[in-house]
Specification:
mainly alpha, 84% helix
Length: 496
Amino acid sequence: MEFPTHSILRDTATHLSVLAGVMQIPGREQRAQSIRKAEKALVALEAFFTHDRAQMFRRWQDSIAALDVLYRKVEQVEAFQEKINNCQEKINVARASMERWLALPDAERQRFLQEARSGKNFLDNEVFKAEAHILHRYQRYSTLRVLDPFADNADHLCEAIHHYENRQKYEASLIKLEQRKEAAQERLKSVRRGFVFAVSFCSLIVTVPLCAPIAFSLWGRRRDIETQIANIDETRRREQRRVQSAEEGVIASETIREILGDVPLDQIRRTLAELRELRAEFNRSEKAGSLTTRILTFLDLNQLIVCNLFGEKPLEPVDTVRWFVNNVTRAQNMENNIAHEEQAKETFIQKQRSLTKGYTPAILQRSISRLEEVRDTGFSCPFDSDLKPVFGDICLRMLSVLHETRQVLWSITHAQMVPDSVWSAVQIRIRSEANMLEACLASMEMEAEWSHLESESDLDSELDSELDSELKLKLKLKSGSVDECDDVQEAVAALA
């Protein structure tokens, strides 16, 4: 099918105007010449306004409507995809902020939620006021908790502290014992030498009555000195053990004195006994006891986990409970928010699938590409996008108009009466289509003329700028202001 150029459209409009002019004459006044003229115009119009052209316009029109539907669907799909992405982004941000909380097992999270509910009851009902004595004991336990390693062996620890405080006396006693031992050893050596001499002289029969009693006396003296040395060694061993125990009590003494101050050993022993009682009270994992004890015990036993989840906790017990409840509540809210966003995301995904009826966006894009190809090449005419649908409607309507015109002309040529109303209706329809086509052509010609005038105005402005530069060069040449060789050559070339 040939492309309807401007000349073809102008000829078609002429034929349509001729046919409309012939149809202005009433049917009973028609002559053979006018009928032949109408037949000639009708043949030309039937050759142009064919069923194929109308079918092409219908396909083009259907492609436009289908593209509008697909464009809206693509926009809706993109809108749903944007909502899905927003939900996923919120989920990712929430999961990143609550990563440690979500990493806990479900049973552990439920345990924390249950304790948070108990803590909320503790705060809302102001249980901390009624059980202030428990809070006081817990604060006392928190203060003494650093001494917990020493509480289980309090007697030995107090003994070590006592020895540590008397370590200088023990060291001085060790020095004296060492001196006594050395003196005793020297005496022992002298006694041994005397005993040996006495025994040696007993070999002489004459000196036996004199040396034997001396030998026995020296033997007894030797045993006394050895007993003294053994006693000194035992005393020295006990003193060294006390010094060793004092060394064990160095750290304990410094730690305890730093917390309790310079207090007697009996008070230290009582304080460590009190610490054991407080530890037994606040380190029980069972649920027995008051609400304050339970919540404080839970926070104490799970201190590492809680601090790892929510950061550093406050110092005051009530503030700690409030901090724990607020953080667990926020974590629960974030978890509920994640579930809500996941549900919203799934809803958007289902809506997106129902909108595309299972087709992927890639399939929609391929369909759009094929329809755009039909839109661009399926119905070719020189009109723009605004007049193209009008011309297509003319092509559709002209089929029935030409068919009715052919019937009334056949009736006239065969000497059959055509009612004036039918003749007038056909004439009005032909004149309407002729005026519509003329209006489309006039609009197209006006746009072409306007674009031509704009191009000419642009060309005139360029020529004016060139003339201005040429005139300036002439003035420079006349005034002698162009001295350089290059400038003269450029000026001559421009004038040429």
